[in-house]
Amino acid sequence: MLQAIRPGMTRALRRSLFAGASGLAVALSLGVGAAAAQTAPQDEPTEIDEVVVTGYRASLNASLDAKRRDANVIDVITAEDIGDFPDLNLAESIQRVPGVAIDRDAGEGRSITVRGLGADFTRTRINGMEAQATAGGTDSSGGANRGRGFDFNVFASELFNSITVRKTAAAETEEGSLGATVDLQASRPFDYDDGFTAAMSAQAGYNDLSEEYNPRLALLLSNTFGDNDQFGALISVAYSQRNLLEEGFSSVRWAPAVGTNSSGGFCSPVGVTPVNPSGTANGASAANCATGVARPANTAANVAAYNTANQSNVFIPRLPRYGRLTHEQERLGVTGAFQWRPAETTLLSLDVLYSSLDATRQEDFLEALSFSRNAAAGGQTQVHVRDAAVENGMLVYGVFDNVDVRSESRYDELSTEYLQISLTAEHDFSDQLHSRFYYGRAESNFENPIQTTVTLDRSNIQGYSWDFRADPNAPVINYGFDVTNPANWEWRPSTAAVPRSEIRIRPNGVDTVFESFQADLAYDASDWLTVKAGINWKSYTSDSYEFRRADETVVPVLPAGTTMADITTLLTGFGNGLISGGTDTAWVRPDLGAIADLFNIYCNCNTGVPGGDFTLTSITNGNARGGNRSIAEDDLAVYLQADWDTDLFGRPFRGNIGVRQVSTTLTATGYSSTGGGTLVTGENQYDNTLPSLNISYEPIDDLIIRFGAASVMARPQIGNTLAGTNYLVPTTSLAASGPNYTATIGNVKLQPFEANTYDLSIEWYFARESLLSFAYFYKDIDTYIQIVRQDLPYSDLTALNPSAFAPGFCTGTCSASTIFQLTAAVNTEGGPLKGFEISYQQPFTFLPGPLENLGVQVNYTHVESEIDYCNNALCTAFVTADLINLSPESWNATLYYEDDRFSARVSGAFRDTYIQNVPGRNGNNVEGKMETFNLDASASYNLTDELELTLEALNLTDEENHQYVGDGQDRQSTSVYHHTGRQFYVGARYRF
Questions:
Q1: DSSP secondary structure letters along 272-327
Q2: Local confidence band at 859 (pLDDT 50, 70, 90 cut-offs)
Q3: Parallel, antiparallel, or unpaired: how do β-strands 122-126 and 180-185 relate?
Q4: Closest by alpha carbon to 97, among 30, 39, 44, 166?
Q5: Residue 725: its pLDDT value, please?
Q6: CB neighbours of residue 609 within 10 Å
C-alpha cells in the first residue's frame, strides 16, 4: 500500500455532474439489442442488408458498411467492437484500426500513432468538437502532458458508441492533422428504436503482479418522451478502480564514460597519463582523486580495468537502479444526451461528457548515484574501476570503489477532470437546403498537487558492481553492503559533504480549454451534386504552472533521538519473475509520511531551522520557471466543398472536392531567466490554403477504388514532454552553476508542419461481412519541426543571442570557453513518409459444423520515412532517420467465435521498434522504445436473453515497457525495462 501523505493542498474538485450520460457502447456491451444509429448530417442514408446478424459480428458488419459508404478513406469501430474488445480504455480500442499503434503508460494505452505520425499530428474530436484531455505519467513516458496530444486513458471505452478514424482530409473536416482525425461519438436517446432502455454490468478485476482485486461498473438509462417521442434523454456511468505494481530496471539513459556528455570520467590510477581528474579542483592531485580519496594503486589489473572502462566511445548507465512503482487509479465517466425534435425538419441535441481520472503513484528506487554526477558533486571522478568488460560499446560489467548509493522515494497525487458541453442544431430550410450549427466548450484540468521526492544515501561504497552479460535488461547488481539495514543508511543534511539527502516538492498542473463554433450549409443542387460551405472558429488555451523549493539539496539535521529506523520502512518482495539471483529483492526506503511530519515539509514556509525552508516559488525560481507558461490560439476557417454521387461509364462514382482557408493567431507567454524571471510574450500569425480531393469508384460490383489528395497542416508542438524541452514559448534560460551547464531558447515564430498527401486504396467486399483491402499512402512533409542540441562555448551563445545570454545574466561560471548544451526548436525541410496497409476480415460461414461460427479480422501496416534532422545548432549538418514515433511495422489480429450463446475472442497487437527523440540526450544519437506484442482474450456466455457472464484477460504475455538509448545502429542500451503483470476480469451484464 502507498504511504499516506494527505496535506491539504488539493483544490476542491468540481463534482457537479450533469444529468446526462453514456453511450450505445455500454448498451450494446451489456447485451442491449442493436439500435438504429443516428446519421451525421453529411452522411448518406444507410442501406440495411436483409440478412440479420447479431452481437460482435453485427458490429463488424456495421463498421464495414460505414467504411464502404463513405467517400473518404476511413475506418470505423462501432459500439459492439468497443464493448466487447478486452480493452481498458479508448486507446486500446483504437489500436484495432489498420495503421494505428499505441503507446502505453502504467500498463494501459495512453496515446496513439496513426500511419507513423504521433499524438501531436493527430486531432481528436468528441461529439464533433476538437478537444484535448491531459493526464500525468511517469517521467519515462513523458510525465504530464503539456503538449497538444490527447491522453486517451482519461476515458473508459464504454462511454462511446463509435470511433471513426479519418485518414484523408476533406475541406469540411477541421484542419490540424497530418496523420488522422479521430472522431469519438457518444450515444444519444434517438439512437434507439425502442423508447426505454436500461442495462448494467459489474466486473471484478485481478492483477497477478500486484495481487489486488478491483471493481469495474457500468450503467445505462435511456428513454424517449412526448406524444410523438419528440423528447429524449440518456444517461450512463462507467466507473473503475485499478491498483497495480510496475517493477523493473532503469538507467535514466547511458552516457559516455569520459569526454563530452560524460560526468568527467573515472579516477585514473597513480602514474597513469593523462591524469583524470586533472588540476587541483575539489582536492585533486597526483595522489588523490578528491579530498580524502586516494587514487588506485598502479597495478596491472587496475590500469587494465581503467583503460577498458574510461573511453569516450564506451557508454555507462548513468543511474543504474531497480525500482517499484505502485499505482492506484480511480476513473469515473459520465455522459448525457438530451434531444428534442420539434418538427421533422429540426433536431436539437445537447451533449454532456464528464470524466475524472484520480491516481496516486509511489516510486521506490535503489540506485547508484555516482555515475551521473561530476567532480563538484562528488561523482564519477572519485570512482575507482577494479574490473571491467566492454561489449558493443557498453560497459556491461564493472566492479567499482567509492560509489555513492541512494534510496529514493517519490509520491504523486494526480487528478484529471474533463468536462465538455456542446449544443447542436440541425434544420432543413427546404428539401434542398440543409443546415447544422454547433457550439461547444471543453475544459481539461490536470493537477499534480503532491509530487514529493525524498532520498537517503550511503557514500563511498567499496565493491559495488553491475553485470549485464547474462541479461542486458535485468543486470545483477551488488551494492556492496546490506541495503535492508537502516543503520547502514545516512540522512545527509546540508552540513554534510556531497552527496546530500534531498527533499523535492514540485506541485504542477496544466489547464486546457477548447471553445468552438461552427456553421454548415448544404445545398442539393441536383440529385447527384451537393454544394457545402461553412465557417469554423475555435479558441485554444493551455496554461501550465509549477512550483519548487529554492534549493532541494538543503535539508534539516535529524532531531536528537531520531534514528534512521524512525524515518524508513522496508520494501520487500521485489522482482517476482524479473530478476535473477544475486540482486537484492528488499531494501530500506524513506518513510515519506514520517519525514513529512517530522520536518513539516508541506507548510510552504521557512520552519526556522537550518535547511528547513520549504517555501515554494515559481517564476522567481530558476528550476521551476520553465514550467510556468501559457499558450493562446485563435483559429478561423472557411470552406467550400462539392460532393457528388453519380455514375461514370455506368458504374458508381462518388467523391468530393473543396478548399479550406484557415488563419491562425498565436500568443505564447513565459518567463525567461533574465532578471530572476522576466515576463516574455511572443506572437505569430500564419495562413494556410488547404485544397482536397477524394474519389471513390466502383468499376465492378463489390470492388471500390479510392484516391485522395490534399494539402494538410498541423500546428507546432508546445513542447517535447519526454525531453523536457520548450518549443513555442519565447523564453530563454541559462544554467551556469553546474554540474550541468545548459541553455535553452524558445521559438514562437515556428511555422506549422505542412505536407502534401496522397492516398490510393482498393477494397474488395468479396463476400457478405467480408473485406480484403490494400491502401498505399504517401506524405511529402515540406515543413518539419525538431529539437537541436549543440555543445557551444559561451562565446558562441552570446553571438547567437547577445541580449538573452548577456554576461550580466550569468550567475555562475561564464568564461568564453565554458561549454553549454544549447537546446532549441527549429523548422527543417522534413522529408517523405510512405507506406501501405493490408486488411482482411471474414466470418468463416463456409466451414462445416461449429467451425462456421469462427471469423477473423487481421491488418498489417508498413511505414517508411526519411526525415533530415539537424545535427548542429545552425543546421549546417544533417542526419537522416525515421520520423519520431514511427514503427516500420505493426499488425493486429483477432480470431473470434460466436454462436447464439457463447462468444470468444483472442486479439494480438504488434508494434515495431520506434525512436522517441532525435538526437538523444547525453551523447546518444537516438532514444527509442523496443517492439511490443500484447495478447488479450475475452469470452462471454448468455445464460438467458437478459443475463450474460463475461471473462477478460489482458496482457497475457506480461509485455515489458522496454526503452533504450543508442547510436541508431548497433548499440541499444536499456534505459527502462518494466512490467506490470497480467490483468483479468470476471463479471456479468444484465439488461432490463
A1: -SS-SS-SSGGG--SSEEETTEEPPP--HHHHHHHHHH--TT-EEESS-EEEEEEE
A2: very high
A3: parallel
A4: 166
A5: 63
A6: 12
Q: Give the C-alpha separation, 193 to 185, whole Å.
A: 18
Determine if the peptide bond prior to 793 is cis (ω within 30°).
Answer: no
What is the rounded distance in angstroms from the CA atom of residue 127 to the CA atom of residue 122? 16
Burial status of residue 48 (CB atoms within 10 A of its CB: 0-12, 13-18, 19 or more) = exposed
Identify how many contiguous H helices and E strands the chain contains and give both numbers. 7, 53
Sequence-distant (≥ 6) Cβ neighbours of residue 560 within 8 angstroms: none
CA distance 254 to 920: 10
What amino acid is encoded at 361 in this protein? Answer: R
3-class secondary-structure state, position 896:
strand
Query: Is there a contact between 754 and 711 (Cβ–Cβ < 8 Å)?
Result: yes
pLDDT digits (tens, 9 = 90+) for 629-678: 999 999 999 999 999 999 999 999 999 999 999 999 999 998 887 666 78
Neighbours of 727 (CB within 10 A): 22
SS3 of residue 542 by DSSP: strand
pLDDT digits (tens, 9 = 90+) for 508-560: 999 999 999 999 999 999 999 999 999 999 999 999 999 999 999 999 999 99
Of 536, 315, 582, the closest CA to residue 436 belongs to: 536
Assign 802 to helix, strand or coil.
coil
975 in Cβ contact with 927 (< 8 Å): yes
Q: What is the pLDDT at residue 53?
A: 52
Contact yes or no for 705/782 (Cβ under 8 A): no
Contact 402, 386 (CB under 8 A): no
Q: Is the pLDDT of residue 295 over 80?
A: yes
Residues in the chain: 992
Residues 6+ positions from 588 with CB-CB distance below 8 Å: 407, 456, 483, 484, 485, 486, 488, 489, 564, 568, 569, 570, 571
* Residues 852/775, Cβ–Cβ less than 8 Å: no
pTM, to two decimals: 0.88
Residues 472/396, Cβ–Cβ less than 8 Å = yes
Whole-angstrom distance, CA of residue 951 vs CA of residue 203: 9
Q: How far lies 577's CA from each of 211, 474, 574, 589, in Å?
A: 14, 11, 9, 22
Tally Cβ neighbours within 10 Å of residue 667. Answer: 16
Mean pLDDT: which of 588-597, 730-739, 740-749, 861-870 is highest?
A: 588-597
**CA angle at residue 305 from 299 to 309, to 5 degrees?**
145
Residue found by looking up cell 492506484 in the block: 328
pLDDT for residue 577 is more than 80: no
Within 13 Å and on the Cβ side, how many CA atoms surround 597?
12
Dig out the grid coordinates for 560 from the structure.
536528537
Beta bridge partners of 509: 447, 545
CA distance to 189, 629, 692, per residue, from 522 (Å): 25, 41, 18
Q: Is 82 helix (H, G, I), strand (E, B) or coil?
A: helix
Q: Nearest CA to 265 among 184, 169, 178, 385?
A: 385
Considering only the C-alpha atoms of the chain, give the largest distance between any 2 of them, rounded to a whole number of Å: 99
Judge contact between 986 and 953, C-beta under 8 A: no
- Report the alpha-carbon distance of residue 919 to residue 130 in Å, rounded: 32
Report in angstroms the alpha-carbon separations of 103 from 719, 754, 930, 963: 18, 24, 11, 12
State the cell numbers at 369.
548515484
Rounded CA separation 137/100 (Å): 21
Question: Which H or E run includes 398?
Answer: strand 394-401
Rounded to whole angstroms, how far apart are CA atoms 642 and 529?
Answer: 7
| Whole-number Cα distances in Å, 356 to 9, 200, 621, 797 | 18, 20, 31, 45
The pLDDT of 35-47, averaged and rounded, is 38
Q: Across residues 2-21, what is the average pLDDT?
A: 32
- Secondary structure of residue 157 in the 3-state scheme: helix
Q: Are 187 and 222 in contact (CB under 8 A)?
A: yes
Output the nine-digit C-alpha cell for 438: 454547433
Q: For the chain, first and last CA: distance in Å?
A: 39
